[in-house]
Specification:
Helices cover 31% and strands 19% of the residues. With 318 residues, it is of the alpha+beta class. An eight-stranded mixed beta barrel has the order 1-2-3-4-7-8-6-5. A hairpin with a 4-residue loop joins strand 1 (107-113) and strand 2 (118-124). Helix 1 packs across helix 3 (262-285), helix 1 (39-62) packs across helix 4 (288-313) and helix 3 (262-285) runs antiparallel to helix 4.
Length: 318
Amino acid sequence: MTTLAPPPADAPAPTDGPPDPPPPTDGPRQETPRPPARPGLALAGAALCVLAAVLLGFAANLTVVGHLQHARDQRTAYDELRKELALGTAPVGQRDYEGRTVKPGAPVALLRVPALGIKEVVAEGTTSEVLMSGPGHRRDTPLPGQAGTSVIMGRQWGYGSPFLELHNLPTGARLELTTGQAKSVYEITGVRRAGDPLPAPIGQGQGRLTLITATGGPYTPSGVLRIDAELITPVQASPPRDLRPGWIAASEEALGGDGSAWLRVFLWSQGLLLASLLAVVAHRVWGRWQTWICAGPPLLALGLADSGAIVSLLPNLL
């Protein structure tokens, strides 16, 4: 019979668990070296952030966000106009009831086109910024319902596209405009494009309305479409006018861009670039997901603001 020899006296006792970790050392702890800083790469990353934010904001402003902004501004303008009509303080000329010049963007009329289902508040002015909120009344023309030719402009595609279907209006269709004086009704007499003959001049004490929008493909205006309508309700009184026909800036003409928006573009772009540089630095310090969670909303907001200023430089009937 075979017998096992006893283990040596100095052998370690067997254990059932994992081996003990090595004892700690008193030497310095070694850290994973960080990659060297590359300023050029940081600037390139910031530039890409700026470009992405502007492109996304530009697309959003001309589609979803722009339509939401138009709907919000229309609700606000409708409430304001309704209140002024009830109080009898709605503008009836180039000056308000206190004798001050009506500010651009102030609501002056309510336009209804039953044939197209259009119901839009018309604001004073026709700059690109004013037309973001809805149709605008050209300031050097009389208000709807008064003697002379009143002109209202509206966008074709962007910001609610209020005049997108304007070319479908048939001759004889009626338009209704409510101002601080009364509700005036117009009857469509024709549609004009570039090169078409001008309508016959209206007689003394008669009224005409011209609706203007762009022609061309989506977001690529190539011309101007005009809808002429004759006033068929009594002509309202016309207050004295300080602004004569033609006394408006080029930015208020059809397809005009607002050159004063360059300053806003510059300032918003500077803020967007600074936020992008901070995001690049935060990416190195915090990590990817922490940076996007904290920097994503500010970059998107700045991109929307910057692209909105850029849209003001584009044709106002876009």
